[in-house]
């Protein structure tokens, strides 16, 4: 990809270059360089998805490759406008609707989008701009080859804008909602305004909700009960996808996560969803989520976890020792922390329990990133000097062992996706309750995990050491190799540097750690807190 040199921008201390696209920050413009990787993934997904649509059209008509289908993008919460610029320039979108609710940021957006339009027109093309009656602005780009493209800036509340587009019959191939906080109202509006087979990128930053520290907000905003569990960061992704899944069902739609990203700065949870018509019959178990939508249960004393589909909930509660209506189970409080059968589990849900990634999509995203040179010397975000290349210095990791490059991030996400696919291809187990009492838990969990693929949680090494009363946490990489040797599907995860996603139960992980040489303490700690 050639570097973009944008016209009309005088270099200044507020000029930023991201993946070769320079832009300026106004006094009100929000920009976080650590989110560069999420914008990389979104742009690459747009390119890959467009190419897939072209291939589908060719297969349907059996002719020579047709031209690339149009790509219409809505950037619902633009901030500095860098997303809109990158969709226009790097994804070569035909139409970008850039929305920013804060009119105080209009001057910054005018300058950035004007420069993007000039770059899109060169070489040899023309561009023009005109104000709209509603106080926005429209840029029209006429390329040298005759192709016409358009970028429109509006200032509306995001959910209202998407609802208006839906009523006007204006649908998008990709809707990007980079929201702050929960912003749950925009999810349904985005699902209603995307084309069948289109993409919706959702974001939330509700860390206290994801961590189970604000149960009332979880109920009010997401319609879920969320407990404080060790894999809270993954729970934050699954609660977002779970809400989107429920909203999609109400509209007779289906959603499939193409990738799901947790970033510790913020923290921020993001997911890119493929949205299409729901093919299952209304009222069927498949249409209502089957094994992909349900509840997770966690026993703090033993560190074990289990999950069940929404339709298995009464049996799961009985097997877990709850009466189905007792306050101790429904509130998520636990009983004894000794791991005995009487211990009450922590309940979270309903959540998305299915895969977080699409292996084939991520493989194509990685190939496209390699083609563009985004995996060499990569990083891409930072204050500008004279450089405008497609790659830049690696961003500093925001936590020890965290992700610092797009190449590293894609490698971890692909490892997760491969494990999810491998676990899903295991032979199905016979029907059983989705969650069991502590006495039968290990056998039942193995059956559940074979039914659902990779479980919807991860095991932290500190928790393995605590659950097994070991003298210290085991080595993550050594434990991963030992679990694979024992026949368990195991992968590292980008969500938590010191954790593994695996089909092994906690007790099996402890056994493997002991086999590697970890020693047990004489006295087990009785209290368990998660941070």
Write the layout of secondary structure elements.
Layout: E1 15-18, E2 21-24, H1 36-61, E3 72-75, H2 82-89, E4 95-99, H3 106-121, E5 126-131, E6 137-142, E7 148-154, H4 158-167, E8 172-177, H5 185-193, E9 194-204, H6 207-210, H7 215-222, H8 232-250, E10 253-263, E11 268-277, E12 293-298, E13 305-309, H9 313-319, H10 327-330, E14 346-352, H11 359-371, E15 381-383, H12 406-424, H13 441-452, E16 459-460, H14 461-467, H15 476-485, E17 490-492, E18 499-502, H16 506-515
Parallel strand pairs: 3-4, 3-8, 4-7, 8-9
Antiparallel strand pairs: 1-2, 1-15, 5-6, 6-7, 9-11, 10-11, 12-13, 12-14, 16-18, 17-18
Describe the structure.
This protein has 531 residues and is of the alpha+beta class. It folds into three domains: 321 residues, Vaccinia Virus protein VP39 (Rossmann fold), CATH 3.40.50; 74 residues, no CATH class; 60 residues, N2,N2-dimethylguanosine tRNA methyltransferase, C-terminal domain (Phenylalanyl-tRNA Synthetase, Chain B, domain 1, 2-Layer Sandwich). The strands form four sheets. The protein has a nine-stranded mixed beta sheet with strand order 5-6-7-4-3-8-9-11-10, with helices on both faces. Strands 2-1-15 form a three-stranded antiparallel beta sheet. A three-stranded antiparallel beta sheet has the order 13-12-14. The protein is elongated, with a radius of gyration of 24 Å. Its EC number is 2.1.1.216. InterPro entries: SAM-dependent_MTases_sf, Trm1, tRNA_met_Trm1_C.
